[in-house]
């Protein structure tokens, strides 16, 4: 199966989107050269974060410039997962600016995401920075707005939501992966 150069990847804080991205990055052909010891966060009950994240007050801003985005990777071979919560606000621009790349959306209900984000460390998360969200009230408001934008964009593109399963991975990425955990409240879709 032919994969794109980039997959613009978004989900709200606490949607478990980072774990999904890391699972996909185990598929041969994905580029993980954006990972280093400064770009990781682990938590005892949580898989954590790995690699570059894009967004306001983060290491990389959420700019739609190919050279800027690609600068986060040491090498340029393979498919790069470009992670930003804020792609939720720029999905139309992503589609126009990068028509040959894919957009992957992760949906999890607002309160489940908000609660999990706090359990995973909340504002104490070391990477990426969540300073832009300011406080818990703003975080919940942004989760709600981002989820609404994600759902609206998927609707506009007649996207089909599915659970993140081994079958879904095989259907969309042509690779067999064994998943140790599945979550009934998380849905995914890809817009190609």
Q: Report the strand count.
A: 7
Q: How many separate helices? A: 6
Low-confidence segments: none
Termini, distance in Å? 13 Å
**Per the principal axes of the C-alpha atoms, what is the gross shape?**
globular
Radius of gyration: 15 Å
Largest β-sheet summary: 5 strands, mixed
Q: Strand-residue fraction?
A: 15-25%
Molecular structure report:
This protein is of the alpha/beta class and 192 residues long. It has one domain. The protein is 31% helix and 16% strand. The protein is built from six helices and seven strands, in the order E-H-E-E-H-E-H-E-H-H-E-H-E. The strands form two sheets. The protein has a five-stranded mixed β-sheet, with helices on both faces. Strands 2-3 form a two-stranded antiparallel sheet. A hairpin with a 2-residue loop joins strand 2 (40-43) and strand 3. Helix 4 (110-119) crosses helix 5. The protein is globular. The chain starts with 5 loop residues before the first strand and ends with a strand.
